[in-house]
Amino acid sequence: MYLKTKYKLSMACMALVLMACKTPVASTSNLTPTATETTAANTAVVPMAGNTWKSTKEKAGGQIEEQGITGWSDPQVYFTTYARVAKPGTMKVWLNLRVPEGKTKLQVEALGKTKAVSAQGSTLQEHYVGEWQVADTGYVAFTIKGITKKGNDFADIASIKLAGEAIDAQTAYVKSNEGNFFYWGRRGPSVHLNYPLPENTDVEWFYNELTVPEGNDVIGSYFMANGFAEGYFGIQVNSASERRILFSVWSPFNTDDPNSIPDDQKIKLLKKGEGVYTGEFGNEGSGGQSFLKYNWKPGTTYKFLLQGKPSGDDHTTYTAYFFAPEKNEWLLIASFRRPKTYTYLKRTHSFLENFIPEYGDVERKVLFSNQWARDVKGNWIELSRAQFTADNTARVGYRMDYGGGQSGNSFYLRNCGFFSDYTPMRSWFERPATGKAPEINLESL
Hints:
The protein has helices at 2-22, 35-38, 48-51, 181-187, 392-395; strands at residues 43-47, 52-54, 63-65, 68-70, 79-85, 89-98, 103-110, 113-120, 125-134, 138-149, 156-163, 191-194, 203-211, 221-227, 231-237, 243-250, 268-272, 277-281, 287-293, 301-310, 315-324, 329-339, 349-354, 364-375, 380-382, 385-390, 402-407, 410-415, 428-430. It is mostly beta strands.
């Protein structure tokens, strides 16, 4: 009896083993990856704070702060995070988040594919979202939307983790806040065109023409036409209702606080045009600032003229004029005297920057044409070559949506918006020379 029972049990166990062997193994493609996979070298942890934009500029309903997305209560609000991949392949995605109370369900959309993830728990932890196939290099936008929530907020999200074949050391994103890069990264890369001047020539005047194409007058843009070693001169979009012509000269005293500049190193105003505001500026160096509120228009070409010459006893005077086609006249912006400086114009350049981080996800472009320099002997010299460069945000590889070059009779600059092509830094470009110097009665200005 005992042997018979033992035999039956053995046969039953064998049958179970055989059945288990015949049972299909579940696919792991939709399962949470193992710890080994998540700690592989081809992993990128993308902080929300430096790489994310909110769907609305309103402060209510959710914020992007140094710790990431917080206070996300409004179901109409969503967030988009960007990272640039340098090769195709598979890409697994996690969200590092906490749910202050209750449960939440989120949706992540990228590359035309949407996946949902449910989460709970009031401490930060990684939640696996799913796998995507990256077909080409370039920026990937991860749009995160709230589907349902049982608490007041959907979730606080600190970062997105990416891992897989498409992720490597060349994956571009703002990696940390060291050097205040969450701020600079969200502003986006600044881009420049540098116009070389002839050697051994004292250049007193610099002339340039600027056109902002229709649709590129994005809030937060500074389209800088006439840059020089000690300052800059161009036009801005300051808000939906205000635009400015801005001319500034740095103090020789190196500080971000204008109040700390010694009296003998302050920029002195000599004269200014009608309606022009003058004062001091700080935060990015310090010095004298002037601006005229002026409703300039996209699609219209504006002319800029800058004079720089020594004014004796170790001082240099810089004077800026803006040609308003709407008025058909040259307008004086301001004339500043810079102490401890004895020079003619050096390092002539143009640049494009975004100075409001909330608009760092919007592309903008500007055209520069017909650049000329005039030496102290009265000779006009055409500047038809330019070298493209970009700021530290671009140089360290945190943002790669930067570009510049030559188009038709103009040079151009573009930045922000996470376009996937970019211009190699220090590239040289040449526009067709016009051979026609500006016709300006300098004595009448």
